[in-house]
Amino acid sequence: MGAIWYECKVKYRKIDETGIQKVVTEPYLVDALSYTEAERRMNEEMAAYVSEEFKITNIKVANYSEIHPFENTDRWFKSKVTLMAYDEESGKERKTSFYLLVQANDVKEAYDNTVTAMRNTLGEYSIPAISESPIMDVFPYFSGEEDGLEQIEKFNALKASKPKFEEAEDTMEFAPEVLTEME
Asked: pLDDT, tens digit, for every residue of 48-64?
């Protein structure tokens, strides 16, 4: 059985980029077995991030089949994936759609990361839609057993890594006569 992801909306005071404090309601994902556990885990996770009081305003089951964090990314994208299968009895092609939540810096990278996540799929598939998700952070459940600790460390390292921006090498060359004109 796969993970059940709950989308929890949390209302709290936040200081924005301009230094002004305002009340925001932001969605987070948490892996839990029930609404009650999702609320408990969300309270634990947010207590570590928010120093003032906060309120969980909504909890609902999220429709993500899988969550895929990637290194050096900072946003979450919702990818719709459609599997195509041929039904031998009816002779028709059947399509089944599901959603992945992938981490990326932009839509193109989200597409590439979705393809990477689907690389072991044997069947034919298409990616008809990708959109930026409002999800702020993802809190998976790990059992605390030894291999679980490795999983949480790996997941958190991927999630926390920041995008790397490489300096582009300046390879522009000018003809000698243009250089003398510039001087």
From this structure: 888 889 999 999 999 99
Output the pTM of the full model: 0.73
Scored b (16 or more CB within 10 A) or e, 128-152 reads eebeebebeebbbbbeeeeeeeeee
What dihedral do alpha carbons 132, 101, 26, 157 form, nearest 10°? -110
Q: Are 16 and 5 in contact (CB under 8 A)?
A: no
pLDDT digit string, tens, across residues 13-56: 988 889 899 999 999 999 999 999 999 999 999 998 888 899 99
Q: Would you call 105 exposed, middle or buried from its count of C-beta atoms within 10 A (0-12, 13-18, 19+)?
A: middle
The C-alpha atoms of residue 33 and residue 145 are separated, in whole angstroms, by: 18
Tell me the one-letter amino acid at 154: K
Does residue 49 come out as left (phi exceeding 0), alpha (psi in the -120 to 50 range) or beta?
alpha
